[in-house]
Amino acid sequence: MNRTEFIVATAIILFAAFMLGWFASWLIHRLSRVTRAEMGELESMAQQLHEAEEARDRAVDELETREADLVARLSTTEAELRAAQGQLRESLTEIEELREYIDRKLKR
């Protein structure tokens, strides 16, 4: 094999490799191409996802609002409970004082 035959053989092999690569690329592109129906389905799924995210955001906002309301109500209730306990202690102290007063008056 002389130099010219070697160059021609190498050129044919490189051209065949190029054509094989191009054909493989075309075949993969052809098989993995997205159809119009699939694009419509993807757009529909994207719209549904967007709506679901908006619904989730609204639900989170509503939950935070309810939580803030419940925390405020709990604080108010705890304050009322402390006030009622204080009044109860005062009433118990007053009852004890009245019992002692009655016991003193009855012993005379």
What does the model show?
There is one protein chain. The chain is an all-alpha fold. It folds into 2 domains: 1-33; 36-108. The protein is built from 2 helices and no strands. It is rod-shaped. 0% of the residues are buried.
The main pleated sheet reads as:
none
Helix content: over 70%
N-to-C order of helices and strands = HH
Instruction: Please state the CA-atom Rg, rounded to the nearest Å.
Output: 44 Å
Average predicted confidence as pLDDT: 93
Strand content: under 5%
Report the span from N to C terminus.
144 Å
What's the helix and strand layout?
Elements: H1 3-31, H2 36-107
Fill in the keyword field for this structure.
0% strand, mainly alpha, single chain, 108 residues, transmembrane helix, transmembrane, 2 helices
Brief synopsis:
The chain is mainly alpha-helical.
